[in-house]
Amino acid sequence: MSDVRTIFELSAQNRGAAAQHLSERPGAMDDIPASLRRERAPGLPEVSELQVVRHYTNLSRKNFSIDTNFYPLGSCTMKYNPRGAHRAASLPGFLNRHPLAPDSASQGFMACLHELQEILKDVTGMQGVSLTPMAGAQGEFAGVAMIRAYHEARGDHARNEILVPSAAHGTNPATAAMCGYRVAEVPVNASGDVDLEALKLAVGPQTAGLMMTNPSTCGVFERGIESIAAVVHDAGGLLYYDGANLNAILGKVKPGSMGFDVLHMNLHKTFATPHGGGGPGAGPVGVGERLLPYLPVPFVAQDAKGAYRWVTDAELPDSIGRLSAYAGNAGILLRALAYALMLGREGMHRVGEYSTLNANYLARRLEDAGFELAYPDRRATHEFILTFSESARSRDVTAMDFAKRLLDYGIHSPTTYFPLLIPECFLIEPTETETKAELDAFVDALVAIQREAEADPEKVKGAPYDLPVRRLDDVKAARELDLAWRG
Amino acid sequence: MSDVRTIFELSAQNRGAAAQHLSERPGAMDDIPASLRRERAPGLPEVSELQVVRHYTNLSRKNFSIDTNFYPLGSCTMKYNPRGAHRAASLPGFLNRHPLAPDSASQGFMACLHELQEILKDVTGMQGVSLTPMAGAQGEFAGVAMIRAYHEARGDHARNEILVPSAAHGTNPATAAMCGYRVAEVPVNASGDVDLEALKLAVGPQTAGLMMTNPSTCGVFERGIESIAAVVHDAGGLLYYDGANLNAILGKVKPGSMGFDVLHMNLHKTFATPHGGGGPGAGPVGVGERLLPYLPVPFVAQDAKGAYRWVTDAELPDSIGRLSAYAGNAGILLRALAYALMLGREGMHRVGEYSTLNANYLARRLEDAGFELAYPDRRATHEFILTFSESARSRDVTAMDFAKRLLDYGIHSPTTYFPLLIPECFLIEPTETETKAELDAFVDALVAIQREAEADPEKVKGAPYDLPVRRLDDVKAARELDLAWRG
Amino acid sequence: MPFIPHTAEEVQVMLSQIGVARTEDLFDEIPQNLRAGALSSVPAGASELEMLRKLGARAALDESVVCFAGAGSYDHHIPAAVWDLTSRGEFMTAYTPYQAEASQGTLQLIYEYQSMMTALTGLDVSNASVYDGASGLAEAVLMAVRSNKKARSRTVLLPDSLHPHYAAAARNICRHQSVEFVGMALDHDGRVDLEALETDGPDEVCAVVVQQPNFFGMLEDVDALTDWAAERGGLVIAVVNPLALAVLKPPGEWGGSGADIACGEGQPLGVPMSSGGPAFGFICCRSALVRQLPGRVIGRTEDLTGKPGFTLTLQAREQHIRRGKATSNICTNQGLLVTAATIHMSLLGPVGLARIAEHCHANTRALVEALTAIDGVEARHQGPFFHERVLQLPRPADEVVAGLLERGILGGVALGAYHESMNHDLLVCATEKRTDDEIGRYAAALREVIAR
Amino acid sequence: MPFIPHTAEEVQVMLSQIGVARTEDLFDEIPQNLRAGALSSVPAGASELEMLRKLGARAALDESVVCFAGAGSYDHHIPAAVWDLTSRGEFMTAYTPYQAEASQGTLQLIYEYQSMMTALTGLDVSNASVYDGASGLAEAVLMAVRSNKKARSRTVLLPDSLHPHYAAAARNICRHQSVEFVGMALDHDGRVDLEALETDGPDEVCAVVVQQPNFFGMLEDVDALTDWAAERGGLVIAVVNPLALAVLKPPGEWGGSGADIACGEGQPLGVPMSSGGPAFGFICCRSALVRQLPGRVIGRTEDLTGKPGFTLTLQAREQHIRRGKATSNICTNQGLLVTAATIHMSLLGPVGLARIAEHCHANTRALVEALTAIDGVEARHQGPFFHERVLQLPRPADEVVAGLLERGILGGVALGAYHESMNHDLLVCATEKRTDDEIGRYAAALREVIAR
Ligand SMILES: Cc1ncc(COP(=O)(O)O)c(C=O)c1O
Ligand SMILES: Cc1ncc(COP(=O)(O)O)c(C=O)c1O
Q1: b/e per residue B339-367 (b: at least 16 CB within 10 A)
Q2: Interchain CB distance below 8 Å, C84 and D84
Q3: What ipTM does the predicted assembly reach?
Q4: Are B325 and B159 in contact (CB under 8 A)?
Q5: 3-state SS string for A373-393
Q6: If you ran DSSP here, which 8-state letter would residue B411 be given?
Q7: Would you say residue A1 has pLDDT above 70?
Q8: A19 chain-D contacts, CB cut-off 8 A
C-alpha cells in the first residue's frame, strides 16, 4: 500500500518541526520598508520532523538505484559509488570552506584540485585541464567555446559549422548550437564506424570541428579514428572528444593519442561519483597545446615554492572565462579524486578491462540466448546494443515493453531508444563493478521476458506490475500540465 | 522479487572489497609462534564493496521502523528519534574519545554526562543518578543490587524476596532472581490497580522490596501508589520504580514524589534514542538519599572549581561497583542529553501530555468502533490495552492474526500478549510524535481487518501477504535449530 | 582490485564464453599504436584508510575559520535530517528518472520541489534545477531573448550591483547568441540609479535583470524597476536569494505585473558551502514561458489504473529530443541538491525559513553596529539592506582579511578585485549561526588588525 | 512544540472525541499532591542549532589527541560504508524484531552475524549480543556455572592478567549467585603462571577464564590452560579480541578439545571508541550449551509457502517467557552495533581483517622499538604479544601521560591504578591508523617528557 500523498497533503496550519525554528526576533526586520517585504507567508508545507523523515524515507524507497539494483543504463556508467569518496568530500574542512576564502586558507582544497588536474591530464594525454564545468554538457560548451575562440583568435571567421556523427548524444548538437554553430551530421556505417567518405565530403573551410565519442555511442571502438583526425585536421577543424565513454578505455588509450584537441570527462560516470537522481556531475575539460590559452577559469596552478593559486582571467586573458559563480562542483571533484587515489595507477587500467569484459560476456550470453546484437561482428566496448525490432514487428512487444517488464524483475532497464539510429534498441552498460552473477541474472530475466512475450505478449505490454505505480501516462502529463501543487 | 540469499551465498574465494584491504606486511607476525596462530582463515564472506552495500541496503528495506511506519508497540515508546541527537553524538570529539582518556582530556564529555545526571535527577525527583547501566534490565539489576546492599549493610539478612505485580515485565522477576532473590507476585485487581489487601498479606520481614511501573503495564495509573509505598516501607522494604513507562508522566509526576526509593529509566524509550533493531539502550538509575552510597560507578562529579571527575569505588567504597568495562553506553547518553536540551523544561511536560492525549483519543475511537478495551472505565495513560478474546473465541481470529494483518496495512503491530494477565491483548502506545491522521489511519485499518475477519476469517489468519515473507514457522525454527550458516 | 568483484575463476569462465583467451584480446580492434603507456602522474593505489588520511590532512588545513563571508554562499545551519535523508543510497545513486515507474521517489520529490519554488517566488512554474545561480542567470537571459518575440531589441540590462561572477558567467555563456548586454549604473548607495535610467536608459529593451538583495546586500526598488522594464517591453529577470524570499516580496508580485522569470542560487536551502559546489540553480517563470524553460520539468499524471504518479514532461524542449534546437544543452543537473533543498524547506516551513532570515538580518545588523563602532570603519551605503553589507575600512580590505584570518576569522569578501574604487571595501555577512560572542571576537580582531 | 505535531484545532477535535475539556483532565486519576513542580535543573528548550552549538563546543574540547591507548578499546579505521548503512532509518529506528515478518532485515543480518562470529571463534553457536565485553564475561560465567552440572565446584578461576574492569564487572554481576572467584597468579612475563597452577591450583574447578591476548597484550599458552582446565572438569571461557581472531588460534581449537565458551568485546569490528559505548559483547559456545545462552538468538526457518526466513528462537530461555527462571534478565541488547560489525566483517572479509591485525601488530612493534630506544624505557614483559604492550618508564606513568597529552598524544593507559606494583607502567598500542610519523612524534614527545 504505497502512499501517494505529497508533502503538502500532510501539512496543517501551524504545524511545524519546532526544533528547527529559531526563536522569534521581534523587530529584526523593522529597518526594511513594508513595500519590500512579503505580505503573505509562502505556501510551504507545515509538517513535523517525523513527518518529513518518514515521507522522504518512504519516497526514497520508491527509487531504483545502484545501491539497490543492477542498473545497466547505457552511456551512464552506473558503477559503484564508493562511500569512502563520499566521506572524503564530507570532511568538515571541505564542506565548510567558503568559495571565496583566500588562498592562504585554502591550500588543502587547492592541493586536491591540482592533484586531480594532473591525474586527468595524464589519463587523457592532454596538456591542460580545467575542472570548472559542472557536467558533461557544460564541459562540451567550454570545449566548443574554446574551439571557437581558437578560430577567432586566428581570424578564421568562416568556420561556422560543427560536425557530429548521426549517433551522437543530444548534448553535442545542442552545445554546438549554443555556441552559435550550425550542426551537420555525419552518417555512421553498418558496422558502427563513421563513414569516412561522407566525412571527407562534409568537411571544408566552414568546419570548426567534429565532436565525437570513442568508443562511440554505438558501443564500438571507432577504428578509423586516426583517419578521421587527419581529415578534420587537414580541413582546419579541431577534434572534440566527448568523454562520456571514457570508462571503456580508461588507462588503455589516451584520447590525446587519438588526435583529439579538446575533451570533457564525465566524472559522474568514469570517476564513480554518484548521480544523485539527476546530478550533480562534473565535466572537466582537457586541451592540447593549442587551446591552453582559452581554458575556462578558475583553475589551480602551483608556484615554485609549492604554493597553490587560482588562475583567473587576469592571468589568462584569452580564457573563455568563468561559466559559473565559483569553481565548479567542488564536492564532486573531491569525490573523483578520492576514487582516483583508491584506484591508483594500476587500478585505472582495470576499469577499462573489466568493464569491457563484462560487456562482452553479457553480449555473448545474450546472443547465445537468441537476442539480436546491433553489431554482431564487432567487439563490444564497455557497452553494446541489442535491438528488439523483430519482437516489435512480429509481436508488437517493443524495447520499451521489455524495459518496463525488467523493472518487475528488480533490474533497472538499460538505456532505450538511444542511439536514435538503431530501432527498438537497448544500450546496455553493465560496468566493471558488477559480478558475473548479476550479469547472469540479467540474461535469465530477459530470457524469461522473451518467453512471456511469446506466450502472452499483453502481459509484457502491461508491465510493470510490482512497482509503486503501473505504466504512467506521459501524454496526459504533457497535455494537462500539472507542474506544481496547488492545493 | 525479494532476494533471500545470505551474504555467504554472494561470496567467492578471493573476492573482496579491495579498497578496504591494507597492504601486505610480510613478516609482521613472525614473532608469534605458529602454535598460537590460526591455521585456516575464518569462514567470513568474501564479497565486493558494492555487494555489501547492495545486500545490506536491501536487507534494511525489509524492516519496519519508526522512520518508515507507524509503530505503536506498547511499552516500547517508539517515538521519533531526532536526527539532531544522532548528529550530536556523532561529533568527532565524542566518537573518537578513548574511554580511558584522562579527565583533563575529557572535560567536554564529562560536562555532558554531568548535565544529564542533573536533568534526570530533577525529572525523577531523586537524589543521585548513575548513568552506567546499559539498558533497562541492567538498570534493574543495579537497582535491586543496591536494595540488597542496603539491607545487608544494615545487617538485615532475612530479606530474601522481591515482590512484583502479576502484570510485571519479565525483566523484573528475572532481575530479582539474578540478584539472588525469590520472586513473589502480587495480583492486580479488575481495574488494573495492585490488589492492596493482597499486598498487605504478601509483605513481611522477608520483603526486600517491590518492583513496579507506574503507569503500570496495564496502561493505567496506579492510583494506590501512596498506600502501596506505605505498606512496603512499613514492612521495611524498598520501592523500585521501573521507568519504562516514564513517558506518560514526564514532567508531570516525579517518581520520587510517589515514594520510590530507586528507579531506572529507559532512555531509549522516554528520551527518544533509537532502538537500533534491538539496542543499544541506556538504563540510568536514580536513588533517594538512603541508597546514595551504593550507586554503581563510574559517574561524574563536579568540584568547586567546576572541574569534572569520575567517581569510582575508591571514592565510593560501598558502591555495587562497575557493571561494564567503561562508563555505559556513552553515545546513547549523549543522544538523550541532546533530546532533553531540545525539549527543554517546557517541552518535558508536553511529552506526558501529548502521549496521553494520543492514547486516550485512540482508545476512545477504537472503543467507539466496537473494539473492547481491557479497562474501559479507566483513563488511558500513554498506552492502553485492547483485547480480542471475543474474536478469538467466536471466530478463532486471534490478536496475533490481527497483528500480522496490520503489517499488510503498513502499520507495525502493537505489543501482543503482554501483559500476560489480559488474554488476546494488544498493548498500544502511539507516542506523542504521531499525528491525529496516523491514529485515524490505524483505526481505519483495524476496522477494515475486523470486517475481513467477519467476512473471511481465513484471510486474516493467513496474513501477512505483502511482506518479504509470509507467516513464519516458529516451531520449525526451535525444533530444527539453524543458527549459523554452514555453506 | 578495488571495486572490481571478479575472481580469476570467473574471468576464465567469462573469457571462454566469449571465446577469447585473454581480456587483452577484447581490445584487438584498437590500433596498437594508440595504446597508453604508464600513468606517471597517478600515484599507486591507496586503501580507503590511506586516501582518507591524505585528504583528511588537507581538509584539516582549511578548517576552523569562523565565517563572516557571504557574497552568494552562506554559512547556514542545516538540520541533521536533511543530509541523513539526502545521502540515502536510493536518492544518491539513482540516475536521472528516465524510467518513471522505477523513479517515483525522485520524481515526486522534484514535483514537490517545483511546487515549493513557485510558492517562494510567486511564479507559476519551476524547472528541476540548473547548475548554479550564475549559469542559471545565463539560461534565464537566453529564455527571455527567445520568448520576448515582441521586442525588437536584443538588449539585456545588467545592473552594476549584480554579483560580478554572475555577470561574467552570463556574458560568457550568452556570448555566441548575439545578446547585447548593457550595464545599469548605481547610485551612491549601491543600488540601480533609477533616475539615470529614466533619463538615459534605452527606450526599448529585451530584458532587465534585477538582483534582490543585490551583490552589496542592498535592496533595490524592485517595484519601480519592474514597472520601468514593463513599460519598455522588457521582461524582468529576478535574481533572488531563496531564503530572503521567506521575508521579502516575491518576484511574482514585483511592480504592477510581476517579474517574468526568477532565478538564483539554491545553496542557502540546505546545501553546505563546499567551496561553491555542488549546489543548484533554480529557474521559475510564468506559465506562458514554460516551453522556454531549460532542463528537466516534472509533471503529475496517472498510471493506467488512474493512480497518481509523476514523470518527466515537456521533453520536447530538451537536448535528447530536440538536439540542435533544444532550449539548452543541459542534461545532468543538480538533482541531489534539490533533494536536500526540498527536505530542508519541508523541515523549516514558512515559519522556520522566516526565522532564519530574521536571525541572519539581526546578526548582520549587530555585526555592522559592532564593527562601525571602530574608528575609521563605516557602512558604505545607506538604505535598506538584507543580511549583508559593505563596510569601508581605513586600510585595504584584502590586507585586513589576511590579518583577520590569522585570528581565525574569515572576515568577509574584499571587493577590490571586483571594483577598483572599492579597494577598502569589505562585504560582510553574519548568518544565524554566528553568535554574539563570535561577533565580539570579530570586532576585537578587527580593532587589532586596523591598529597594526 | 519540538517533535509534537498537534495543531490547536486537532487537539480540540481529539479532546471532544474523548469527551474532556482539557488535556489536563486526562490526568485526573493522579492524586493532585503528586504533581510535579517546575524542573529547575532543566534548561529552557534549545533549537537543534543551539543544541549542536553547545555540544559541539564540548566535543571540540576533547578532540585532537592522537590515540595510542588500547586496553580494550581500539582506534581502528571504520570503512565509510559501515555507518552509512548502519544509520539507515530502517536499521536504526526499528525495535527488537518481535514481528518477524516485518523485521527480516534485522533478523537475517543477525543470523549472518551469528554465522560470522562462529567462524571467528571456531565455536558452534552465537547469541545476538550482550551489552559489552565485561558484562558478557559475567554472563558467560553464569552460563558455565549453570551448565557444568558435573562439577561439584563453584570455583571460577580468573587470571590476574584479565582486564581488571572485566574482573570487577564479573564479580559484581555474579556476586549474588554464589560463584567463588579465585585468582590465577602470573609469571614474570605477565602471563598465567602455569607451573604455579600445576602445583598449587585446585583439583577441581567449575570454569577457567582465559583472556587472549591478555590485558597486557601478552599471549597466554591457551592450549596448556585449556587442557589443564579440562583435566579438572572445568569449562573454559575464552575472553578474546575478535580482530585478533583473524590471525590467532580460535578458542574452538584451543587445546585438545577447545574452549567451551568464547566472549569478548566487539568494538574492534567497526564500532567507534565513543568513550566505551555503545559497542557490544558477544558470546559463542558449543552446541551443547545453546540452551544456556543469555539473550536473543536468531534461527533460520521457513514461511508457510516454504520460503526461507528468519525469526527469534529458543525464546524459552528468555525473561519475557521464563521470567524468574530465565538464563539472564537481558532484554534490549546492542543490536545496532551488531549491524555495524556484520557490515564491517563483510567488507573486510578474512583477508582484510587479517591485514588490519598485521598492521596493528607491526605498528605496535615499531612503536615499542622507537620508545624503548629511549633511555630508561623498557618492555615490561618478554614473550609473544599481540598489538599491545606494557612499557616500564623511568617516571610514574600517569605523570608521563599528562605530559604527553599536552603534546597532543594520548600515550596509553597508566597501570598504577590497577596494580600497585605497576606505577611506572604504561600500556601502549598502535593500531593500523597510526603512521610512522605519529610514532616518531610520540617518541620525540616521550623523550621531552621524561627529560623534563
Ligand atoms: C555520450 C554523452 N555525451 C554527453 C553527455 C552529457 O553529459 P552530462 O549529462 O553530464 O551533461 C552524456 C550524458 O548522458 C552522454 O551520454
Ligand atoms: C516495563 C518494562 N520494564 C523493563 C524493560 C526492560 O528494558 P530494556 O529492554 O531496556 O532492558 C522493558 C522493555 O521493554 C519494559 O517494557
Answers
A1: bbbbbbbebbbbbbbbbbbbbbbbbbbbe
A2: no
A3: 0.98
A4: no
A5: ECCCCCCCCCCEEEECHHHHH
A6: B
A7: no
A8: 2-3, 47-48, 51
* Cβ-contact C203, C232 below 8 angstroms: yes
Q: Give me the sign of the Cα torsion angle D202, D204, D210, D215.
A: negative
Backbone angles phi, psi at D212, to 5 degrees: -140, 120
Q: Tell which atom from ligand 1 comes closest to the C-alpha of A168.
A: 1
Residues of C in contact with D349 (CB under 8 A): none
CB proximity list for A32: less than 8 A, separation 6 or greater? C219, C247, C248, C361, C384, C386
Residue D126, Cβ density class (10 Å: 0-12 exposed, 13-18 middle, ≥19 buried): buried
The three cell numbers locating residue C52: 582518507
Check if the beta carbon of residue A242 is closer than 8 Å to that of residue A140: yes
Region C240-267 average pLDDT? 98
Search chain B and give the residue with CA nearest A341. Answer: B19
Report the candidate in B308, B348, B156 with the shortest Cα–Cα distance to residue B236: B156
Pairing of strands D235-240, D207-212: parallel
Nearest to A323 among C34, C135, C322 (CB): C135
User: What does pLDDT average to over chain C?
Assistant: 97
Q: Which residue type, as a one-letter code, is found at position B12?
A: A
CA distance B78 to A389: 54
Ligand 1 centre distance from Cα of residue A118 (Å): 23
Q: Which three cell numbers stand for residue B32?
A: 608469534
Evaluate whether A375 touches C73 at the Cβ level (below 8 Å). Answer: no
In the three-class reduction of DSSP (H, G, I as helix; E, B as strand; rest coil), residue B372 is classed as strand
Q: Are A363 and A373 in contact (CB under 8 A)?
A: yes
What's the gap in Å between the CA of A70 and the closest CA on chain B? 9
What is the average pLDDT across B235-254?
97
Q: From the CB of A173, is ligand 1 less than 6 Å away? A: no
Which amino acid, residue B85? Answer: A
| β-strands A285-287, A128-130 pairing | antiparallel
User: Are B464 and B405 in contact, with CB atoms under 8 Å apart?
Assistant: yes
Contact D176 B47 (CB under 8 A): no
Contact A1/A480 with Cβ under 8 angstroms? no
Percentage of chain A modeled with pLDDT above 90? 98
Report residue C339 as a C-alpha cell. 533533494
**Distance between CA D99 and CA B407 in Å, rounded?**
9
Facing C84 at nearest CB: one of B13, B49, B83: B83
pLDDT for A231 beyond 50: yes
**What is the DSSP pairing of strand B384-387 with strand C413-414?**
unpaired
Nearest Cα residue in chain D from A84? D80
What are A436-471's pLDDT values in tens digits? 999 999 999 999 999 999 999 999 999 999 999 999
How many CB atoms lie under 10 A from the CB of residue D256? Answer: 10
Residue with cell 516575491: C250
Q: Which of B169, B238, B214 is nearest to B419 (CA)?
A: B169
The answer to whether D450 touches D394, Cβ cutoff 8 Å, is yes
Which of D331, D334, D336 to mutate to test ligand 2, by most ligand atoms within 8 A of the CB atom? D331
C-alpha D359/C-alpha D376 separation (Å) is 27
How far is it, in rounded angstroms, from Cα A148 to Cα C412?
A: 37
D218 → chain B, closest CA residue: B32
Plot region of D237 (φ>0 → left; ψ -120 to 50 → alpha; else → beta): beta
Average pLDDT over residues A392-402: 97
> Which of B:280-339 have CB within 8 Å of D?
280-281, 320-332, 334, 337-338
Burial environment of residue C435 by CB neighbours within 10 A (0 to 12, 13 to 18, 19 or more): middle
What is the arithmetic mean of pLDDT over C207-222? 98
Compute the distance between CA of residue C387 and CA of residue A28 in angstroms, rounded to an integer: 11
**8 Å CB contact between A55 and A395:** no
Task: Answer for the pair D401, D337: CB distance below 8 angstroms, yes or no.
Answer: no
